[in-house]
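thread: overnight batch results

M.L. [08:02]
morning all. the overnight job finished for the chain we discussed friday. pasting input first so we're all looking at the same thing
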Amino acid sequence: MRIVSVGGGPAGLYFGILMKKADPAHDITVYERNRPDDTFGFGVVFSDAALDSIAAADPETHAEITRHFYHWDDIDIYFRGHVLRSTGHGFCGLSRRLLLNILQRRAEALGVRQVFQTEIQDLAPFRDADLILAADGANSACRARFAARFQTTIDWRPNRFVWLGTTFPFKAFTFHFKENEHGLWRVHAYRYDREHSTFIVETTEKTWRAAGLEGAGEDDTIAFCERLFATELAGHRLLKNRSLWRSFPIVKNGRWRHENIVLLGDAAHTAHFSIGSGTKLALEDALALRDALRDHADVDAALEAYESARRPQIESYQRAAHVSLQWFEDTERYMNHEPIQFGFSLLTRSLRVSHENLRVRDPEYVDGVNRWFAARAHPPNDVEAPPPMFTPFRLRDLVLQNRVVVSPMCQYSADDGTPGDWHLVHLGSRAMGGAGLIFTEMTDVSREGRISPGCTGMYKPEHVAAWKRIVDFVHRHSPAKIGMQLAHAGRKASTRLAWQGMDEPLPDGNWPILSASPIPWFPHSQVPREMTRRDMDEVRDQFARAARMTEEAGFDLVELHFAHGYLLSSFISPLTNVRTDEYGGSPANRMRFPLEVFDAVRAAWPAHKPVSIRISATDWAPGGIEAADAVEIARMLKSHGCDVIDVSAGQTVPHAKPVYGRQFQTPLSERVRIEAGIPTMAVGNISSYSDVNTILAAGRADLCVLARAHLYDPYWTRHAAYEQGYDLPWPPPYTSLQRYTPRLK
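M.L. [08:03]
and the structure it wrote out:
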């Protein structure tokens, strides 16, 4: 096989090494624009796991790397006069130039041809090769030549950073957070040999400009940073190597191959330096491509298999890197955290390190986090602090025994709004399952406000008795509290049961529907009537009546549904509210009617009991609500007496493009909590007890709301308690379980 690599960085060289090992007959040429000893940057970082992969694929390269790397287990965080240390992380640093030299020597020994100081702009001379690697970095000329074919997108991020070196030998991976008259500066520093460290300085565009660094050359940058970090550098100097201020590009490609050309490394994808080294991903790409070629005789099939297998891994890594990148873009948001929480938030920023994962690495550190968190919930004592999820939480006079919440989940099993035995068992079993707060499904304030004929309601006298039966069971047989979620479906009303067609209109028997504006959900959906002031008065009073009935039934908390495209949500989003009167246009106008409803409910609901609001913190659609708008919405609700915001997202328009992933809505909860200064509930793909503990301890929410996890396992909270060694008492009829040890595998 004839292979041409455009780019002599780690991806191209390592792939050449692996292919020559697989078959010395391969004809492989690597073209590099720079000299052999010329490279950007100073050090690269590998985890212990990444090195293990190299060891298995090419022990000789691994042995040479390990002879020169600098290994550390600790992370040090310098924050407002405090030094926070966590251990057990297992990383090593290596000079980037030395790594390239190691790979160059190994490739040469195996017969890989290397051509330096040769810029390849035109691939035509190589089109007869069996395979062409576009491994020429984030600014890939090869990729640019076929950008339309690769479906390339580049997102230039707003922060500025500069890559420096220093003679200061950091003993741990070190983060410095330093404020001066211009703003906040972040430093990412790690040692890569006995005498040198990488020293990356990052800040916001605003701070960078305020410091007068726009247009600064390398010498100006060195002088500025040496003055700024004189104490931290302790007399050591900074080093330059193309050290100009840059913005980070997130490179993504819809396809990684075109004909016999395949993208590798930064040419295919980038991941922010705060999560690790792009070099690691480049080497892993080379391994994956080697495996695909080994397993498929046909190159075309091999390239398809490579992308199919590798892309999900990269997309997961890029999602984690994006969350980490955003943490550093928004670090100013966390500067009022207490030091221990700031450190925990930093360590868990990417979602790849969790409370449980960190406990395995550094149990002493996590014990300290648990003690700090527990002390905020109740006076400290000599008893071992519980995991964060098992600390109590107060809202007005309501005290929840733990931070786990069963999400409202529509069951579509009511008879004219009346809940029955299904609802008793559904909610009762989850209360016995140990959660601190149980929510009813979305319960509608009028018959016309139901999503479907099977939805529950709170609009008839018999509804009170039916709900009270459930509330009394929960209170009698568990310490759980129970909340009622009240809503009006608006333009999403009069539709089929979920399993018959989500949001699809009824085939017959439709009832009139209302919304902020006469916009149907789907083009073929029923067109709602634009609400008049008389309609608003009626709906407002229906909510107040339902709140009084909810109190009569004995509920502990009431939540109003301002999310997911239902009636009150339709007023809030500019995508569904195109009114030209005082209820449309500006955010304050769009919030006018929802706030009227809230005020009516708050007045009807006992003052000692809390009210929560579920919002869609983003519409995930152009021109719709975004996170900054959600903060303003939360501030308005707080000023009216809202106690906690249930931060959901989307489902407001059918053309939304949500970005799913682990805890995908949690960053929205965190932003609302910190910037609006109000307690929040996080919801959305939270599935493990470690997720819950991490979210709480890092300050991303005060409560965690789980839906499908509780459908799958009604006793999810009890099982989480068992796995963490936490004693969560069972109801008296189940006391025999205290002597039972389950077999988990």
